[in-house]
Design goal:
By secondary structure, the chain is an alpha+beta fold. It has five helices and nine strands. Strands 1, 2, 3, 4, 5, 6, 7, 8 and 9 form a nine-stranded mixed β-sheet that branches. α1 packs across α2 and α3 crosses α4.
C-alpha cells in the first residue's frame, strides 16, 4: 500500500466546501471520484483543511492510500483531465508511510482579502469582501496584535467547532495594505471552525469605529462568541499553505 500526497488549488465559489456532502458538489467528492476512476479502486481521501462553501485554496493538501502503481505525475495529469477547471492538482508525489494530510500538519496559513474601494471591483467579487464602509486600517492593525501567541480562541469559534480544544498558537498575524485592498494574513498551529472569518468580522467592527482596538484583547479574555463580531463572508478567505515537518514533505 502506497500513500500519495496531492497539492491542490481551487476556486471554491461553486462548491459546497471541501468535505463530501450527499447532494452538493464538493472538492473532496469530485477529487475522490476522479481518483477512484483513474486508480480503479475506491479511495479514502483526507484533506488538510475542511474549507467551507465558497472558500478558496492556493495550496490545499490531500493524502490517499492506494494499491495502484501508477506514477504520481500521471495521476495528476489524469485528475486534471477529469476535474472541473475550478480545481487543479498542482502536484502529486509519494508520501512517507503513515502520512496523513490533516494529522501530520504542523500549521496552516490563511489570507483574507478586503476590497475597501468606493465601488466594488467586479474582478474581485469572487475573491474579496467589499464591506461598503470606510475602514481605519491603523486601528485594525493595532487590534490584530492581540491575537499573536497562545490563547483560548473560543470567542472566534463557531458552534460546530466547540467539541475540540479552543487553544491555538497564532505565530503570525499581519495586515498589509495595497491601494484599496487589505490583506489579513494569519498563521497558526491550528484553526477553529470559522476562526479566521470571525476574527476578520471583528476586525472590521474595529475598522469602522464600532469598537476600539483594545476590544480584540477583551474578546479573547471573555471567550464568548456571542460578544464578538459577525462572521465575514467566505469569498475573501483563502487557504494559502499547509505546513509540515521534514517527515511529511514526501
Amino acid at each position: 500500500m502506497r500513500t500519495l500526497r496531492l497539492t491542490l488549488a481551487y476556486d471554491g465559489t461553486d462548491f459546497a466546501g471541501w468535505q463530501v456532502q450527499p447532494d452538493s458538489p464538493t472538492v473532496q467528492g469530485l477529487l475522490r471520484d476522479a481518483c477512484a476512476r483513474i486508480l480503479g479502486e475506491p479511495v479514502k481521501l483526507t484533506g488538510a483543511s475542511r474549507t467551507d462553501a465558497g472558500v478558496h485554496a492556493l495550496r490545499q493538501v490531500a493524502s490517499l492510500a492506494t494499491e495502484s502503481l501508477l506514477e504520481p505525475a500521471k495521476l495528476a495529469r489524469g485528475l486534471n483531465a477529469l476535474l472541473p477547471d475550478a480545481i487543479r492538482v498542482l502536484q502529486a508525489s509519494e508520501a512517507p508511510a503513515g502520512f496523513n494530510a490533516r494529522r501530520s500538519a504542523l500549521g496552516k496559513r490563511y489570507l483574507y482579502l478586503i476590497d475597501r474601494g468606493r465601488v466594488a471591483h467586479p474582478l474581485g467579487r469572487r475573491f474579496a469582501w467589499h464591506p461598503r464602509f470606510s475602514l481605519d486600517v491603523a486601528a485594525m492593525r493595532s487590534a490584530l496584535g492581540a491575537l499573536r501567541g497562545k490563547h483560548d480562541f473560543s470567542a472566534f469559534c463557531a458552534a460546530p467547532g466547540r467539541g475540540r480544544t479552543p487553544t491555538c498558537t497564532v505565530r503570525s498575524a499581519r495586515l498589509v495594505e495595497r491601494g484599496v485592498s487589505i490583506a489579513i494574513a494569519l498563521s497558526a498551529d491550528s484553526f477553529l471552525h470559522h476562526m479566521v472569518r470571525n476574527i476578520v468580522g471583528s476586525l472590521v467592527e474595529v475598522g469602522r469605529g464600532a469598537q476600539p482596538a483594545s476590544w480584540m484583547a477583551d474578546l479573547l479574555a471573555g471567550r464568548d462568541r456571542a460578544l464578538s463580531g459577525p462572521t465575514a463572508p467566505p469569498q475573501g478567505l483563502m487557504l494559502v499553505r499547509v505546513l509540515y515537518g521534514e517527515a511529511g514533505r514526501g
